[in-house]
Amino acid sequence: LEVHAPVRGGRPASVPMRGILILWLVLAWEHQPLQLKKLRDIITERLTPETAAILGITLDATVSPDGWYERARRSTNRIMSLIDYHPIFNRHRRLQKKEWDKVRADRKEIAEVLSVRAHRADELMNLLLHATYQWMPKRLRSDKVSVTIDATAVRVHARGVGVTRLSKLGAEETISIEPDAAFWARGTEDHSDDGKTSITKMKYAYELELGVLTSNDPTRPEDIPHIVVGIGHHAPAFGPGKAARAMFENILSRGLQLDHVIGDRAYLPGAKEADLQNYLRSTGAKLVMDYHKTFLGYQDSYAGAIMVDGNWYCASMPQKLIDASKRYREGEDADDKNRSLTKSQRAARAQSRLEQWQSDVEARAPYLFSRKELPDAKGRTPWMCPAAGNSPTASCPRKPTNLASGKVPLTIISRPVEGPAKVCDNKTSTTFPAEAGGKFAQEYQYGSKEWREMYSHGRNSVESFNAYLKDGGTHALEDGSRRRLRGSVAQYFLATMTVVAANLDKIIDFAAQKTEDGNDYEAGIEAPRAKQRKPRR
């Protein structure tokens, strides 16, 4: 599709695209506000003829600082024009309601063109991140990567207008100068289950999707730098499943393969399985997720097996074990509401509940189905019941071949499922389609040691990166006043530049730590050299 006019004649740009990209990255890497006047200051005050030539800029003493500001603005706009999927005819003032309605109608008429631009924007932002991944030493770039996905709200420097108020505005009344942003709200910071918690935070923002590189082995969390390898951008409350899928499709298109994928409840299992979960499994990814309390316990069934907390079990598993996670979470809620408990009492009760839950999870293991083979191209997976195969974990009258196998079973199923059931009647395995339990199924037994290690490591990695991005002492992504370019694509671009700079900082810090630990760090990235201290006097 043609998305812009054919190339016209004329003199070359004073500030080429490559040069302007480098200048924006310099600002982000120096933790400076991402503003056009800062670009102007670099050009007019810091560039030498040699460094300007590297950027493709010809310095001209006759050009005023305002002239260089305009040249930097035009160069940036050339990039934005190729990826602007939310165009507006005028960003220098607040639009009237009737003008905004006209903009939205015009966008619908060129929806196909805007879709191409949106895809191009994602390609550009993710390739910028991929350059930082390629900057790491080769030994750190494994064939498969584990990724933890999360979204973080990025405040914009604008006054918002909510959906309800917008619908009541008259034709001549004005809307927000950032009309594509939306209000983001969350009652608590810890994704708690209590939906009745009053809203304590609200901000007018865009939401940034981040896929953070996580160690494939959670017992060796510091083997790699935790950098962002995938990114997306949208207004809050946009469908997380489709946005996450687009991000993972981009990661795979760059030649990377997925090992583990960890997500919070908004993505896994919050997304529609057709949008995200089944797609990830078809790529060979191992999903690791947590559940809202309303999703704990029995979740699905197929061919006589039941899904409990994301795993397939024998339907004869005792109800006490089926409800183990529910009881654990209900105990947490009860203690949270009990104001009479002291801090030490809460800690003791929490430890007791945790030990009981872990004990119940271990007691579930003999009823757990085992995967016979990996899923095929259509996501179909053959599963064996716990009393089948060469290493059964249970003994069942409906699988008499294993009763005389000479092995001591861990559990005897005295009350097997009644009636026809494929998992009981088939001699070896039963093939489950991708749709069976597709929303909730995950790799590890929920609550097990492997699950706790992988999930906590992934969540810690992404939350730590988010905090680093928003820290006012580093990149201050939370401060919308540092990013003054208008429009969702401009905000996407500036946020990505911030993430790219944060990636570079993380890689250099990783190299410095390895050098400090005495490890031989492969050539390619030099750790910062220690400076000799000088006396204050």
Report the portion of residues in β strands. 5-15%
How far apart, in Å, are the first and last alpha carbons? 67 Å
Low-confidence stretches: 188-198
Total DSSP helices: 15
Structure description:
Strands 1, 2, 3, 4, 5 and 6 form a six-stranded mixed β-sheet that branches. It is elongated and about 95 Å long. It has helices spanning 17-29, 36-46, 49-55, 65-83, 97-109, 111-135, 163-168, 240-253, 277-282, 319-322, 324-337, 343-364, 422-425, 449-470, 488-516; strands at 144-155, 182-186, 201-214, 228-234, 257-263, 286-288, 298-302, 305-308, 311-314, 370-371, 381-384, 394-395, 411-412, 430-432. By secondary structure, it is an alpha+beta fold. It is built from 15 helices and 14 strands. Helices cover 39% and strands 14% of the residues. Helix 1 (17-29) crosses helix 15 (488-516) and helix 11 packs antiparallel against helix 12 (343-364).
Secondary structure layout plus pairing:
Layout: H1 17-29, H2 36-46, H3 49-55, H4 65-83, H5 97-109, H6 111-135, E1 144-155, H7 163-168, E2 182-186, E3 201-214, E4 228-234, H8 240-253, E5 257-263, H9 277-282, E6 286-288, E7 298-302, E8 305-308, E9 311-314, H10 319-322, H11 324-337, H12 343-364, E10 370-371, E11 381-384, E12 394-395, E13 411-412, H13 422-425, E14 430-432, H14 449-470, H15 488-516
Helix pairs in contact: 1-15, 2-4, 6-15, 11-12
